[in-house]
Every structure is written in structure tokens, then in C-alpha cells.
Amino acid sequence: MPAPNIDTIVSLAKRRGFVFPSSEVYGGLGSAWDYGPLGVELCNNVKQSWWRWLVYERDDIEGIDSSIILNRLVWKYSGHEATFNDWLIDCRKCKGRFRADKIVDNKCPSCGASDWTEARPFNTMLQTKLGAVADDDPTALAYLRPETAQGIFINFLNVQTTLRRKLPFGIAQIGKSFRNEVTPGNFILRTREFEQMEMEYFVSPTDEHWKFVDYWVEQYLEWFSSLGLNRENLYLYEVPEEERAHYSKRTVDIMYRYFPEREKPWEELMGIAWRTDFDLSAHSKNKLDAEGKRINPDSTEDLSYFDEPTKQRFYPHVIEPAAGVNRTVLAVLMDAYSEKTNDKGETRVILKLSPQLAPIKAAILPLAKNKPEIVGMAKAIKRSLQPVLRAVYDDTGGIGKLYARQDEIGTPFCVTVDHQSLEDEAVTVRDRDTWEQERIKVSDLAEHLQKRLKPYPVPAPEAI
Ligand code: GAP
Questions:
Q1: Is any atom of ligand 1 closer than 6 Å to the C-beta of 151?
Q2: What is the predicted pLDDT for the residue at 377?
Q3: Partner residues linked to 190 by β-bridges
Q4: By C-alpha distance, which of 36, 29, 46 is closest to 10?
């Protein structure tokens, strides 16, 4: 049973320290969120899983970390300055401002009227100024990147030549992106500051690009299921031409059921796009247009690739799987949410997170906190586990309450130290999902937990 709606997760996230509304001491900042002690661990675990899966376990992908602020010309030639727009309309009756493409049945979502101004473009790149310059100095204008992808394209040649890469190969990057969204909202689903996990996969212009898109869709479906997402809550959307970004010849969105309570439950979790050779050509000094003019007179490099076997030089095509960290975290939280009733008829929340994603892997709980030997033994066990897995010690309540607290934050195992432990050097290990308990020797504990904490398997990548 996944969460019935996003609000259930908002309240759990705040109550238990996953996500807090940002700047609350000043009344908040619309659609900005801060990740608390458990949220930062969950985000890190998602990012680590992604990085391990793509960069370590495959042999054809390298990682980079580029600047958030790039030369403004990057955004000119990528097409973002001209086309990274939302189309806005104003309701003449209530003066509300909305994205034209989100209006249903031509009705104002605030007042129901149908009296609109003409739609006009609004560029959603967030602007800043570099250096101690006058407010109106246009040369100081810079942007906070709206996608991590461009940092990869402008480094294509650096990575390819220094690592002596041959096509096909990919470059992966995780990092913050910024968009001045007109209608942010729905918790961490749409915010102005968010984090992306993007990978640009470079292939030959003569490859079957259509098939590469299908390949990466399948790979990502496997990865999402390794994170615990139920396939029934994912849906593939073949994006029609009129909805695709300016650079895309084909895009498939993987949608998640973020709104199970609504008639239209799906929203984009990630997209897989065939970006053609658009970006590498656009940033290259030698690329000519149909009239033989350089399309980029500002670039000092040519981001083409020399293919040794065919002795051909060309601009590689790109297949881009682009995912959001925050949307993945929200989907994972919604899918992991479950409720269970105990013998006393009380309903408990259990967050059935995949063990690899759980912020805390084991909680070490003393059965009697006024017994120094038991407390000492529990703390020593916590310290001994910490180098191999994230463990916490907690004695701030009765055992039932402590179990419930750990279930609600998705801790796979509770380890209880009791009077008997002092005699037999063994502890009780309780399973989050079944509530079953077993007695384990302290000397075997780390190995026992590590075995059971193995990530859900992702099948080995198929050859492309
Ligand atoms: N480089 C291609 C690109 O950026 P996108 O579909 O605009 O494509 C990729 O973004 C992913 O980034 C989305 O599928 C979503 O997961 C995440 N994302 C985009 N805008 C977001 C926002 N305002 N808030 C949270 N996540 C966002």
C-alpha cells in the first residue's frame, strides 16, 4: 500500500526529520525545502546508488562535476536564452498568473473565469551578476544552470581525450539546477532549486538512436525497481513532438503515480531524450549552417570526434537519461509508505525503504537504560558497527515506542540489548517488515546485518 497522497509524506517528512519547509523562522520561502538529518542521508543514498550503478558497475561511463555558473555564451548557443520559456497568461478577472499549458478547459484555476490575456514568453533561467559591477551592467549577467547537461557537453572533448574514450560512452553528473518556475509546488516535486542526475551517452550519428532510447528506458526501469519502486506505479509516456524540448527528436518520460487520489495521477519522474548532435554542434567553432556560415562564431573549440575505424570526423549524437534526485526521493518515500496494525489494534507507519536507501541501517536499543552494563554494551555495539554501516543508539523511550519510531523512518533492523545479553553475548535482531525477532551472537552481528542489508539486485547491464 503506497502513500494515499503527497500530504501524508509531507507530514511524515516534517515529523521525523526528512524534509522541513525552508526559512520557516521568517515565514518560509514558497516551494523551498531543507533536507533534515534523515533526508540528507536518503538523498545521498539515492545519489550513491545511481553513481555506483552507472559509473562503477558499467565500463562505458565517466563522472564529472562542472560549475553551476558557466559562461553566458553556453546558454546562448544551447538555445536556452531564446527558448527556455514558459508561456504565461493572466486572468483578467482575478489577475492570477498561470502557465498557459497547465490550464484545463480554458478555466482560471482561481476564479473559474475564461477571460485571458495573450500568452507571452517568460524565460525561466535564474539570473545573477558576477563581480562588483553596476546594477545595469549587461556584461555581468550570468545564469544559475537550468540543467547539468551543458556542463557535460562543453567538457566532452576534455573527457574523451584525457580518458582516451571511444564511442559509445557516457558522462554522468549529479548537481543542483535552478529554474524560476512559475508554478512551483507539490512539495519537492517542483521547486526552483533542485538536484539532477544526468547522463549524456554519446553515440555515432549512424547508430539506431531510437533503440538507444528504448535501451535506457529499460535500464532505468530496472534501477527504479532496485530502489523498491513498484512497476505498477510507473508509466511510460512517449512525448509528442509539440511537447518536446527544442533539441529532442524523441523523448520518453518515465512517470510516477504521485497523485494516486486524482483522476490524472501521473507526473514526470525523469525523461530519456535523443538530443541528436544538437548540443555538440552548437558549441563547436567549425560547424556551418546551410549557407556555409559558422553557427557559433564565439567558440574556440570544435567538439567533433574522429572515428579511427571509418576515418570519419563527426559530431556524436546524444541519448540523455535525465532524472531528478528530489522526485526520485519523493517516489521512493511514497512507494515505501505502509501501515500495519499491532496486537493492541494500534496503527503503525512502516517505511519499507530498500535497505540500501534506509538513512539508518540499525538502531541499537538497550532494554534497561538505568543498567550501566546494558547501556555500555549497547553503545559498544553501536561503535563497532559504525565503520561498516550507519547505526544509532537510542534510549529515549520504552522499547515499543523505540521500535515504532524506527519503523516509521525505515530502519531495517533494531538490535536490542537485554539482561540475557550480558550472560550469553547475544542480542535480539528485529526485522522492520515482519516484526520477527532472532537471537544473534554479538561476534556475528556485523556480518549477519551486512548480508541482510544487500541492495535489491539490479541485473547486470545488457550489452548495447
Ligand atoms: N537536461 C534535460 C532536462 O533537464 P528536464 O525534463 O527538464 O530535462 C530532468 O529535467 C528531470 O529533472 C525531470 O524529469 C525532473 O526529475 C527534474 N526536474 C526538472 N525540473 C524540476 C523542478 N522544477 N523541480 C524538481 N525537479 C525537477
A1: no
A2: 97
A3: 185
A4: 36
Ligand 1 site, residue 86, Cβ cutoff 6 A: no
Residue 147 Cβ < 6 Å to ligand 1: yes
Phi, psi of 333 (to 5 degrees): -65, -40
For the CA of 268, the closest atom of ligand 1 is 14
Ligand 1 site, residue 271, Cβ cutoff 6 A:
yes
Query: Residue 425: which region, alpha, beta or left (left: phi > 0; alpha: psi -120 to 50)?
Result: left
190 lines ligand 1 (CB under 6 A): yes
Which pLDDT tens digit goes with each residue over 65-79?
999 999 999 999 999
Distance 310 CA to ligand 1 centre (A): 37
pLDDT digits (tens, 9 = 90+) for 32-65: 999 999 999 999 999 999 999 999 999 999 999 9
318 touches 202 (CB < 8 A): yes
| pLDDT reported for residue 135 | 77
Distance 237 CA to ligand 1 centre (A): 15
pLDDT at 462 (0 to 100): 67
Place of cell 546551410: 290
Q: Please compute the mean of the pLDDT values over residues 103-117 and round it to a whole number.
A: 93
**Which residue's CA lies nearest to atom 16 of ligand 1?**
324
Predicted TM-score (pTM) of the model is 0.94
| Cβ atoms 22, 33 nearer than 8 A | yes
